[in-house]
Amino acid sequence: MDNKLYIGTNTKMTKTIAQTVSFLEALDLLTADISRDDMTLFVIPSFTALESAGKAIAGKNIRLGAQNMCWEDYGQFTGEISPVMLEETGVEIIEIGHSERRHVLHETDEWINKKVLAALRHEFISLLCVGETEAQKSLGIGNETLSIQLKSDLNGVVQEDIPKLWIAYEPVWAIGEGGTPASADYADEKHAVIKSVLKELFGESGAAIPVLYGGSVNPQNASVLAQKANIDGLFVGRSAWDAPLFNTLIRQVLSVL
Ligand code: PGA
Question: CB count, 10 Å around CB of 201?
Answer without folding.
Answer: 18
